[in-house]
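Record passed on here:
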Amino acid sequence: MRDAPHYLALCGGVGGAKLADGLAKTLPEGALRIAVNVGDDFEHLSLHISPDLDTVLYTLGGLANRDQGWGREAESWGVLDELRRLGGDDWFLLGDKDIALHLLRRARLDQGLSLTAVTAELATRLGVKAKILPITDDKLRTVVETDEGPLAFQDYFVRRRCAPAVRAVHFEGAETARLNPQIAQALASPSLAGVILCPSNPYLSIAPMLAVQPLRQSLATLDCPVVAVSPIVAGSALKGPAAKMMREMGHAPSAATIAELYVDFADIVLADEADADLAAQNPRIRTAPTIMHSDKERLALARICLDLVKEKRGT
């Protein structure tokens, strides 16, 4: 007897986390696995920082700061203020509640637990029922090649605020990083109904995951549909440097570029209704409202994605 249908979402930070939240609230409990980018991870003040994992945890736990798009709601900053007073390294902002989570993560990792196991514990403690999975438990680090030379991701994204022009992106550790076994199992399962790529930066959030073998090959040979939601709306990114990076690397910032980047595995690319002209030019592109300012819009986009999967499956 086949297990109940389940879905896999590939997700980065803020924008991706919103759709992941909508999917988690739409699907039955246990039907969603969320694969999350760890190319942003780094060590800071001896703590293991996992920005995308934490954004997904906080968003699904109803704890995220919606105005900032990162960190915790109702956060306090006593530790950072004192660190700054003492002359410590304060360029990466961590609030008090956030630091508590990072202290626990550091302790658990030092005890020998995997990042997957630690994330599962944190999810339980934050009341998150969806299964949140780092794409790999191995070291994977995004390096941005710029006109000023190579920059570690956080140096580019936070220290330099995405100012340097980007020439290329590569991923240290991708050759040896092993795909999370639970993600590999989900991809191989006959009960996998569909895969949804959340509207995350294709270069900084999705590409690091695709660099972990054999994810890209697995997506290309799936028997179920793959739907990718474009993070570009009317030539602009709602959050982050995706559109800027596309222009700097010689591509038009549009859902058509997303379709080309994912041409080998995405059956459908969902663009915003503002880009209806693109759908007339490419049969793989569909349009719908994709901007998610409210919980209602998160749920609506989740349902649209699931309906597209069902349509492609012919069910």
